[in-house]
Amino acid sequence: MKRKARPVEKEVNVWDWNSSLWSYGFQDLNTSVPASFSTSISNVPYFDLRIYRESVVKSLIKAHSKDMYRLLGNIHFDGEYYRVKWANSGEWEYCWDLAVKVQFFGKMLGMTLYPKRLVSQKEKRIVYRSMILVNPYQLWDAALVSKFWNLQERVEYLIARILFHECIHVMISLGNILPSGFGHTDIYLEFRKMFEISVSKKLSTELHNVQFRLWNLVLFGAAGSENEKKLLERVQEIYEFLINEKYSNQKTGKAFSFPPNNKSIARKYAWIAAVKAGGSRQVSKRVWQVEVRRLSIALRELFDGIDTELSNIGFTWK
Ligand SMILES: [Zn+2]
Description:
By secondary structure, the protein is an alpha+beta fold. Helices cover 50% and strands 15% of the residues. The chain folds into two domains: 12-151, no CATH class; 189-312, no CATH class. The protein has a five-stranded mixed β-sheet with strand order 1-4-5-3-2. Helix 9 (228-255) packs antiparallel against helix 10.
């Protein structure tokens, strides 16, 4: 059954850098690429991305997660919204629309915009809309080229891997937002387990170290007008973002035999977290950078602790 949602009128401007995108979505910036790459990226040769086959990308995903395949089954990667989930709870209907777009856009691997909530009182319907952008710019990455000589297969693998990662964010949002029972997938439950471990007593030292660094960074980035409650909420929000990324990176790494390590995840996302916190508004760049490094170290210790605790309870990845 195909249920296609009406295309949305011009929402494209939400991708714009000026639309406080840093605070409203998941960005998977690859900070491990050498600086020189940023100059070559603006000269990406013309390349027709349409050589990928959607069916192949979907079957690559199906091999690793049936739940995710169910989510993506009926949609096309054309940037239009498709209804992927709907459920009734009480007299209200909850719906989820998802759009996927594949295109080159700079140095970001992928990006998921936080769900936009549309409420229709008349129809008693709440619609959530998420947009995933997939940027397979690593197409000429040496390791990937030697793994897939065939360009078409390489594009398909790369799109599947990025989409898998971004879909995890969507599935976690689904689980957090939809009435309980409707959005509870294997992926959501696994993520919850990891999150609970991260805030458990056993890791309280590591947790407090991370929160302390985040608090400092939020103060460094504060505009000055926010009250303490607001700042604490920001700390919590960024903390959840970091555990979300730890889970997404690890899960995708396992599925696509591309294992990341805690050190690299911590380094990459400590920086994004610090930018999300507001940057170096209140202090010098140098002071800010030192704090980002301290967050990265604290984060790595927390991530290592999570792995140890998960293996202690006999957690196995699905
Ligand atoms: Zn991510």
